[in-house]
Amino acid sequence: MAETAEAHADTQFEFITFSAGGQSYCLEITQIREIRRWTPVTALPHTPADVLGVMNLRGAVIPIFDLSARFGLGATPANERNVVIVAAVDGATIGLLVESVSEILSVDKSEIQETPDIKSEATRNSIQGMISVDETMVRVVNLGAVVESGKGLPA
Amino acid sequence: MSGNSIRDTFFEECEELLEALVEGLAQMEQAPEDMEVVNAVFRSVHSIKGGAGAFALDRLVSFAHSFETVMDKVRDRELTVDEKLMSLFHRAGDHLSDLVEAARDETHLDDEAEAGLTGELDSYLGDEAAAEEFSFDAVTLDFDGPAIELPSEDDGGALRVFEIRFVPSRALYENGHEPLLILDALADLGDMTVEADISRIPEFDAFDPADAFLSWHMRLASSEPETTLHEVFEFVEGLCELDISVTAGPEEVPVSTPFDPEPSTGTEEPIAETETVLPEAEETTDSAPPPDRRKEARGPKPTLRVDLDRVDRLINTVGELIINQAMISQRIEELDLPTVAHLTNELEAYKLLARDIQEGVMAIRAQPVKPLFQRMSRIVREASDATGKKAKMVTVGDSTEVDKTVIERLADPLTHMVRNAVDHGLEKPEGREAAGKDPVGTIRLSASHRSGSVFIEISDDGAGLNRERILAKAIEKGLVPPDVELSDPEIDNLLFLPGFSTAGEVSALSGRGVGMDVVKNAVHALGGRVSITSTPGKGTTFSIVLPLTLAVMDGFVISVADQTMVIPISSILETIRPNPRDIHVVGTDSQVVSVRGSYVPIVDVADNLGLARHDDTGGAGILLLVSTELQGLTALRVTAIHDQRQVVIKSLESNYAAIRGVSAATILGDGKIALILDPEELINLAHASGNDPFAQHSRMELRHG
Lengths: 155, 705
Description:
heterodimer, A: alpha+beta, CATH 2.40.50.180, 5-stranded mixed sheet, 4 helices, globular, B: alpha+beta, Four Helix Bundle (Hemerythrin (Met), subunit A), 5 domains, 6-stranded mixed sheet, flat
C-alpha cells in the first residue's frame, strides 16, 4: 500500500471520508488540519442556519459550518459521535461539523470522476468530483465553494 | 544579501534623516536665525548625500548636493531666509524624499520637476559666488559615484599641510574598522608623517585588550581638498575623535565649505556651535567621551530594528498568556477553596505580571505620531499651492504614541482630511482678510492620550461648515428626504454619508465623490470614531478617537439572551437598572426610558442580533447608556452585566467575515468565545432595519445565487 502510494505520488490522492446528512463525502487529506470532538460553539448573529457559530481553536476563532445543512440535508442531529473537521482553505481555517469520520481513502487521480450535470448549480459547485468505492459513491467536497457561499458579502 | 541589508539600513536611516529634515525646516520657519536648526537641516541633507554616494545613487547625490550648497550659504549667512527661499527648501525637501523613495523602489522620477528645483536652487548661488569659489554647477553634474572620487580640479594643485588628530574609540574596533587602512588611505593622498600616541596605554594589569588606547597625530601634505580627507574618515564618523586643521597652504579654508560640515570651518564660527552641531566629528579635546554619548548626539536613542512579524507573534502569545491567566483564575475560583490567602496573593501577582508583560509588549508596537504629522505638512503645502490659498500647519502633541498599525492605517484618512481642510475649510486669502483674519490659514493637528484612547484632531480656522449648502446638497442627492428636519450636528454628520461631496465643483484636490465616508470607514475599521464640530466663521474641527491598541480592550462581560458577550467600556456612559415606571412604550413596540427627565430610546440587543428568545426580558434587564454620532443617546438593553475585564481582541474576519453589530470576538476565561459588540453599529442596525436593504442579510439571497 505504502509502496504504491510512493510510486504514484503525483497521481495518487488520499482522502478522508466522512458522512454528513446520511451521505458519504470526502476531503483531500492535505486540506485537513485536525479532527476534533464536538464542543459547544458560540452562535453568530445574522448568519445562515448552516453557520453554527465560532469555536476556540487554541486561541484562534474559527467558524463552524454544518455540512449537512449546507447541502440542504437538514441540520445534523446532536450525537455523541459528531466530529468537527478542521480544514484550511485560502488562508482561513474553518471547521465542518459532520456525523462521523470513516476512513482514509487512497485513490488514483483517474478514479475521480467529474460531477455530472446535475440540476442544482449550488450543489454542482460544492461537489468537486465523485469517487466510487465498492458499491457506494463518495462525493469530493469543494471546500472553497462551501466557504465562499457561506460568507456571502461581508457586511 | 548583506549588500542588500546595508542598503535597507541606508534607506531606513534616510527615513529618519528626512524626518529630521522636515522637522528642521519647520523650525527654521519659526526661527530662521537659529544656526543650530540650519545646521541640523544641513547635516540631514549631507548625511543623505554621503550615504547615497556610497550606493552610487547619482541623482540623489547631485540633488542633495545642490540643496546642501544653498543650505550652506544660509549657514554662512550669505543668504537670508525669506518666505520664497523657505518654500523652495520645503519643496526641495519633498523632492529629496521623493528621490529617496524612487531610489529605494528603483522607480524613475520625472526629471522636469527636478531640473526646475535644481535651477531655482542654483539661482541662489549667484554668479559672483560661483566665480569666486568654483563652479558649483560643474561639481553638481560631475559628482558621481562614491564620494571619494570627488572632483576638485579648481582648487587642486596647491599643496597644503593638514594636521590630523585621530583618536579611535572602542566602538570603532567593535564595528570592525581597522585604523591601519585609514592611515594607508591617507598616506595615498600625499606625504604623511604619523606619530602614535601611546601615553594612554595603562599598566599591563589594567590592560583591556578590547579597549582603545592608541591615538595618532598626522601631518599630511596634500593637494587634495579637505573634504577628501573627511571622506576617508566617513565610515568611522562618530566612532572616533577627529580633528583636521590646515596649518599651511595658500588657499583659504572656505573653498571646501560647500561640502564640509566639519569643524575646520569652525574658525569663523562660534565654538559652541560646532560642538553641538557636529557630533560626527566632535571636537572635544578633553578625556574621550564614551561612544554611546556620541550616538545620542547623533540621533534619538539607540534603537533595535526588529522584524514586525516577530513582534506580532510575541503579542499573540502574550494574548494567549492573558487568556490562560484568566482561565486559571476562574478554575481556582470554581474550586471554592477555603480562603487561603497565599494562593489569592500569588494569583494576583501573576495577573499583574501578565499585565506588565502585555503592556511592555504593546509598547514595542507604539510609535510617536510625529512622522505621520510631518507627512501632513507636505500635504498642507501641496494643497495650498494647488488651491492658491495660504496655509501653515501647527502640530501639537506629536510625541503621542500610537500603535504602528493605527499610524499606518491612519495615513490615508488623515491625508484626506487635511486636504479637505485646506481645500474646503480655509477661505481664499482675500476672503480671510475681509473677515479680519490672518491671510495665512492655520491647519492644526493635535494628538493626545485621554482615558485610554488616542484623540486626534484636525482643525482649520476657516469659515466653518456651510450647513445650508450641506443640507441642500444632501437633499439634492437624495440622501435625505426633502422635508427632513435636522439639528446642526445631524447636518454636519451628513458629510459622512457615502456619495456626499461638498465642493460645488470638483476640484483637482478633493471632491471626487469619494469623501468623508471613506475616512469614516477607515477610522471605524480601526475601532475608532470621527466627529465634527464647526463654528461659523471660526472653523471646523474633526476629532478622531482611537483605541490605544488593536489587540486588547477593556470591556464589560454581559449576557444577552443566553449568550455571553463583551461590550467596550469606552462606549458606555452609564449603566441603569431601570425602574419599570421609567419605561414607556411609544407606538406599538418602541420603548423609551426616562433618564433624568429626558427620554432615551431603548434598543434591545438580543432582538437586533436575532437572538430573540423572549422569555424573561419584558422590561427587566439592564440598560447601558451609550452615545452615538448618528442617533444620539441610546439605551442598550442587555440581560445582565457580569464582570469588567480586559479582553484580547480576535478578529472574526480573518477566518470568516465581518458581522454587523459585532466588531470582533474574544476568548473568555472558560475557553469559550464571546462576541464583542459594536454599539454604534448595533444601534444603526436597529434604526435601519426595515428600510436599509443592507441591514437585511444580503448573504441570504446570495447564498445559492
